[in-house]
Each structure stands twice: as C-alpha cells, then as structure tokens.
Amino acid sequence: MSILEIPKPTLMRILIKPVIIAVILFAASPASAQVPPGAPSPTRVAREANNAQREAGNVAETVQNVNDVINALKDVKKMIDSLVANDKSHTAGEVHLILVGINYADESLVPVEAALKKLEGITDLKKVQKTATVTFEMKSSQVPIDIWKDLPKQVQKPFIVHDKDAYNVVLLYRAPAKAKK
Questions:
Q1: CA–CA separation, 117 vs 95, rounded Å?
Q2: Which residues pair with residue 140 across a beta bridge?
Q3: What is the reported pTM?
C-alpha cells in the first residue's frame, strides 16, 4: 500500500504529532525569535556578555595584583621601620651643630651655648672653632635637628638650617643688620 492509499483521517493521526513537535521546536528556537529592527542579534548579545565577563575577570585580576603590591610595600615599610627602630648605633652618639660664617668671639654664640647646656640629655659639650666656623660637639641620644628645634626661637633666629643628617646640622649665620649712622 502506498501513502496515497492510506485514508486521510489515519494519515492525519500519524502526522499530527511530528508536526506539533516541529512547530513547538521552531517557536522555541532563538533563531525564530523576532528581533526588532536596529536591536542587536542574540548572538551579538551573547558575544558582548562574554567579552564583558572576560573584562571583569581582567579587572579583578588587576585589582588583586595592585593589592598584592600594596601589601608587599607595607611589608617593606614595616621591615625598614623595624630596622630603624632597632638601630642602636646612634644612642648616646656624638652629634654636631656646625655654625658656618661666624667667628668664635661672636656674641650670638653665647645664647646658643647657654641653651645647649640647659637641655637634658646632652653631655660632653665642646665648642671648636675653625676658620669662620664654630662646631658644638656633644654626646646625645637625640638627632641634632631635634636638639636644634628644642632651642628657644630667639636663639635660632640668627641662623638658617642649611643641611642635616643623623649626626650633623649645618647652620648658616645671618649677621644682624648694622644700624645706620
């Protein structure tokens, strides 16, 4: 028997199920979805979503790398701070206030020397002169810039801090203006 000889109601019962399944599948497929004019296709949307997800992963990785660098720098800072805090070589070491451009007999040295003698923690204070330079040598656990800052402002007034390090402060003398006759 050929397909043409099968009665129509029987043929309809046999073919109706595959046709219904095909219609359901066609309606559910993304290719058949109607896309408004000018809207991106579903494939393009999926591709853009994948790109955005990849970029988000890159940003997260970069942020993590930056956090790692910041943490490493914090560790280095802690290590340096620890080394500096444990450096006992400066304790009660010899420090110097070097006054440049002043003579040994200048009256501006008297208040500096007197103020240094009054400060606590300074021992073995000596005044040494060499050609237009006077150096106050002393033993102290303080760094010399802190010693200088502890002196009264009136004592500091004729001097400018020129240079400093852990053991020395170089001060330039500014002679007071001479009164006009």
A1: 14
A2: 93, 122
A3: 0.48
CA geometry: angle 70, 71, 74, nearest 5 deg: 90
Instruction: State the fold for domain 93-173.
Output: Alpha-Beta Plaits (3.30.70)
Which residue from 99, 88, 111, 106 is spatially nearest to 166, judged by alpha carbons? 88
Cβ contact 95:143 at 8 Å: yes
pLDDT at residue 88 tops 50: no
* Separation between Cα atoms, residue 113 and residue 152, nearest integer Å: 12
Residue 62 CB coordination number (10 Å): 10
Q: 95, 168 in Cβ contact below 8 A?
A: yes
Q: What are phi and psi of 177, to 5 degrees?
A: -65, 135
Residue type (1 letter), 81: D
pLDDT exceeding 70 applies to what percent of the chain?
74
Residue 137: both structure tokens together: 């040598």
* Residue 171 contacts residue 148 (beta carbons within 8 Å): yes
At 179 the pLDDT is 59
> What is the edge-to-edge ordering of all strands in the sheet holding 159-164?
122-130, 133-140, 93-100, 168-173, 159-164
